[in-house]
Design goal:
Elements: E1 25-27, E2 30-33, E3 36-38, H1 47-55, E4 61-62, E5 66-67, H2 68-73, E6 93-98, H3 102-115, E7 119-124, H4 129-132, H5 144-157, E8 164-169, H6 176-191, E9 196-200, H7 214-223, E10 228-232, H8 238-248, E11 252-255, H9 264-273, H10 283-301, H11 303-317, H12 324-332, H13 337-347
Parallel strand pairs: 3-11, 4-6, 5-6, 6-7, 7-8, 8-9, 9-10, 10-11
Antiparallel strand pairs: 1-2
Helix pairs in contact: 1-10, 3-5, 5-6, 8-9, 10-11, 10-13, 11-12
Length: 350
């Protein structure tokens, strides 16, 4: 079992980043560049969100997590086409896969490859109760043999030139047994040819509660210094992203919840890396992004479905506004394009 770092002081996520220069990120054969990327987000990271993130500095983005069974059965219908929708400027892009059976995983991975995804990402990290109840996501962290079989079958079916990566949490819980299983899966994954892992530094039992354990990320990178390890958890500002890299030694970070309604996090991280102090987006800049996000979403879903789907984004964007409670309430009432435009005209005008 890997040694612990308990004799060292814990990492304070508020510490100022060290002056260590950032190294360009690479996932197997895929060049990424700036090592702050957009994570997969169920219900959020569709093509429209990814495009907004890219235009504000995200060098890589992953799609919404998709079930293996769904991918095997789905047809390119109007109501489902958004799941596999890509464009020429949406690369490099990762397709994230979640499921229960190794055979289904392999078939789902083949479908993602055929759809044009540049990286295939396996989700062993989802902590949602209904997902765990169906033996998916973080459930696999409790059964290393099955998890490694999933990875093996997926790697076998995916062409050599396309990287396979894995997303996982630091274990089911904080027990020694859970820790041992985490490292068994992690070590086995690298032996099977996984190009990189993303480690969310909370346990499955924690879900999204309590602080993310950055000390664990430092320990993982020390144990696997020659492998690509990305960190995740408690990344809500550009400074958080650079602090995690500097204080833990990970090769990059995957921003998840911190990017919902705040795509400027990528531009801010880039500015800080260049030694420039980033400024919060002005109302004019927010309006421009909000308007473009709706336009892209309407292009993806059509005018009838777009309005209700964009409400959840508007609620998150409202947090950037000085009158965020009033703006949030206005976005909750959005039903169609005219409602969205009315919010922009009322709250994001000159």
């Amino acid at each position: 079992m890997p040694s612990t770092s308990r004799n060292r002081p814990p990492i304070d996520a508020r510490q100022v980043p060290a002056s260590t220069p950032l190294r360009p990120l690479r996932l197997g054969s895929v060049e990424i560049g700036f090592p702050v990327v957009q994570a997969a987000l169920s219900g959020y990271s569709d093509w429209a969100m990814r495009m907004i993130a890219r235009r504000l500095g995200a060098t890589y983005a992953a799609c919404e997590v998709m079930l293996d069974q769904f991918l095997v059965q789905v047809r390119q219908r109007q109501r489902t086409r958004h799941f596999l929708h890509l464009s020429d400027d949406d690369h490099p892009v990762g397709g994230q896969l979640m499921g229960a059976e190794p055979e289904q995983f392999a078939a789902g991975a083949a479908r993602l490859v055929a759809a044009g995804f540049d990286v295939i990402d396996i989700n062993f990290g989802c902590p949602v109760k209904k997902v765990l109840g169906k033996c998916r996501g973080g459930y696999h962290l409790g059964q290393p043999a099955v998890a490694l079989n999933v990875i093996r079958r997926t790697r076998d079916v995916v062409p050599d030139g396309i990287p396979v990566t894995v997303k996982l949490r630091r274990g089911i819980d904080d027990s020694p047994q859970s820790r041992d299983r985490f490292y068994e899966i992690l070590s086995g994954a690298f032996q099977l040819g996984v190009a990189a892992v993303t480690v969310h530094a909370r346990t499955v039992a924690q879900r999204y509660n309590g602080p993310s354990c950055w000390e664990f990320l430092r320990e993982v990178k020390e144990q696997f210094p020659h492998q690509i390890v990305l960190g995740s958890g408690d990344l809500f500002t550009g400074a958080d992203c650079l602090r995690m890299i500097a204080l833990t030694g990970v090769d990059g970070v995957a921003v998840a919840r911190g990017a919902i309604g705040n795509p400027w996090i990528f531009a801010h991280a880039m500015a800080l890396a260049r030694g420039t102090e980033p400024q919060p987006p002005t109302l004019a800049q927010q309006r421009e992004v909000l308007s473009e996000h709706y336009r892209l979403s309407e292009q993806l879903y059509g005018p009838q479905r777009c309005g209700p789907l964009m409400r959840k984004f508007g609620i998150k964007y409202a947090a950037q506004h000085p009158h965020h409670l009033e703006v949030r309430a206005a976005f909750i009432r959005v039903r169609q394009r005219s409602d969205w435009d009315a919010v922009l005209n009322t709250w994001y005008g000159e």
